[in-house]
Specification:
Length: 290
């Protein structure tokens, strides 16, 4: 048994393994390896070599421990946005990106990802560099903050939320922010009122959409001819970027989209693992030589 932060249950595992099965005899890149759930599933399915990349130094430490006795796995601290650079001159047959935050990151209060746990307004995947979310929350002019919440959180009440935040700052903690945001939403709702605000701040803090655009392009360049790219998105902003990138490559004759519609999790998986409910997997096959 492995011990450690094994609470992250990987989503759409079977579909990911099927998508990358033709690649398992060669190098596969798990570009967001996290706690190694998908990496492990690929190994169990016969993967011969996995480069397990993560931007979070804690995740890389955990991956190093988890796979210390398995020479097929090489954990690397890097951003998938920098592909193909972390690979040197190697060309993988498969790349997997499972976007967003891991359940372990969400459950670790000090990381500041959760509005349910009291922690600092951090939200960085790599907390050793860059500016934490507190800088946006406490320094952005109100109109810019509203624009950020609208654009990255698709928050309809962005102006009201931004106004309340600005009136009450400086804000120190996740739960304090969540309370302030909740004040802009009278009545009960299905989603916690802070959900969209936290999503927006996390995306902005980590420049996630830029990183995704850059990472998709880098992964496409990195792949060998005939290789496959599988991407799991968790909200429509990400999914749209993946869909458009794949379609544009297909139109340019650079390969084929293998998922006309995204693959979603079934009812059993969604019931067991709430993260799976919003997961959408798309797969692209790069054109073969000749
Ligand atoms: C949903 S989790 C992945 C979980 C993993 N598939 C598993 O089964 O355990 C997403 C991971 O991506 C990492 N991440 C976020 N942005 C990244 C980036 N630009 N480059 C590499 N990893 C990144 C996060 O630190 C997090 O560990």
């Amino acid at each position: 048994m492995t011990t450690g932060p094994s609470r992250h249950e990987p989503v759409l595992v079977e579909a990911v393994v099927e998508a990358l099965r033709p690649c398992l005899d060669e190098l596969v890149v798990d570009g967001t390896a996290g706690l190694g759930g998908h990496t492990q599933a690929l190994l169990d399915a016969g993967a011969t070599r996995v480069l397990a990349i993560d931007l979070d130094p804690d995740a890389v430490r955990w991956l190093t421990t988890r796979f210390q006795d398995d020479s097929r796995v090489e954990p690397v601290h890097a951003s998938y946005a920098d592909l193909p650079q972390p690979l040197g001159t190697e060309r993988p047959a498969g790349v997997l990106l499972d976007l967003g935050v891991s359940s372990h990151q969400l459950a670790t209060a000090e990381r500041g990802f959760s509005f349910r746990l009291e922690g600092p307004l951090d939200m960085r995947f790599d907390s050793t560099t860059g500016a934490p979310a507190a800088q946006l929350v406490n320094r952005l002019p109100e109109t810019d903050l509203a624009a950020l919440l609208r654009e990255y959180g698709e928050e309809r009440r962005a102006r009201a939320v931004a106004r309340r935040i600005v009136a009450r700052r400086p804000l120190e903690s996740t739960t304090e922010l969540a309370r302030v945001v909740a004040g802009a939403f009278p009545g009960r709702r299905r989603l916690h009122p802070a959900t969209r605000t936290f999503q927006a701040l996390r995306i902005a803090t980590n420049e996630e959409l830029e990183v995704l655009r850059q990472g998709l392009a880098g992964a496409h360049v990195a792949l060998r001819e005939g290789g496959r790219l599988a991407v799991i998105a968790f909200h429509s902003l990400e999914d749209r970027i993946v869909k458009h990138a794949f379609r544009a490559w297909a139109r340019d004759g650079e390969g084929e989209v293998l998922t006309r519609r995204p693959i979603r999790s079934g009812r059993t998986e969604s019931r067991r693992n709430p993260r799976a409910r919003s997961a959408r997997l798309r797969v692209f096959a790069k054109a073969s030589a000749g």
